[in-house]
Design brief:
This protein has nine helices and four strands, in the order βαβαββααααααα. The chain is of the alpha+beta class. The chain folds into two domains: about 80 residues, Glutaredoxin, CATH 3.40.30; about 110 residues, Glutathione S-transferase Yfyf (Class Pi), Chain A, domain 2 (Up-down Bundle).
């Protein structure tokens, strides 16, 4: 039996954060498919058995069951001993970037991408314009920072990088961004992440069917 089980599906960037961490750490793990688009996470029995919050990812390790990507990444870094902090200052810096990610970087981009290509109906133009403004603002912060150094903490990757990377490896047709053109700092950073041993994209790591909404 694998050491870790991850409840996930291939369109979820938040689940990809946990899957990518497991892959980079080269541990024995198993993906468990969650049929999100057919409402599995909304079913009372799933929430009772897996996660009362109705969300993925959910990580199982022994008798532990953890949800929320930031909690999972922190737990894995501490348990496996990779991609974590080497000092109290680094712990604070990791937390700073992960909070920024969850509040601004991932949250707006994930919503924008869903309405752009995955939702049954396209997003209202005013809503899309609002979200894009927020996305561009968050991207500008990260792009400037990553243009000056290889990874968020400096010369080595950490769970802060894994967290911000959650939605960066989905194809352009799902979100409309060409990072090589619009955000070269982010693009160079994603290329460095691709070069790490064990790296795979979300559609390679997690189960489910790749699709775009039929409109």
């Amino acid at each position: 039996m694998p050491d870790f089980r991850l409840h996930c599906f291939c369109q979820s960037g938040n689940a990809y954060k946990a899957a990518l961490m497991l892959a980079l750490c080269e541990v024995d793990w198993e993906p468990v498919f969650v049929d999100y688009f057919n409402g599995e996470t909304r079913r009372p029995e799933w929430r009772e058995a897996v996660n009362a919050m109705g969300e993925v990812p959910v990580l199982e390790h022994g008798d532990k069951r953890l949800s929320q990507s930031g909690v999972i990444l922190t737990y894995l870094a501490r348990t496996i001993g990779k991609f974590g902090a080497d000092s109290e200052d680094e712990r604070s810096e990791i937390l700073r970037w992960m909070l920024f990610d969850n509040h601004k970087f991932t949250s707006y981009f994930a919503t924008y991408r869903f309405l752009y290509s995955l939702a049954p109906q396209p997003g209202d133009p005013a809503v899309m314009a609002f979200l894009k403004t927020r996305v561009d603002g968050a991207f500008a912060v990260a792009d400037k920072h990553l243009a000056a150094q290889p990874f968020l903490l400096g010369d080595r990757p950490s769970i802060a990088d894994v967290s911000l990377a959650g939605y960066m490896f989905f194809p352009k047709e799902e979100h409309g961004y060409d990072f090589a053109v619009s955000h070269p700092g982010i693009h160079a950073w994603t290329e460095r992440l691709k070069g790490l041993p064990g790296w795979l994209g979300p559609y390679e790591l997690m189960p489910g069917e790749k699709f775009l909404a039929q409109r």
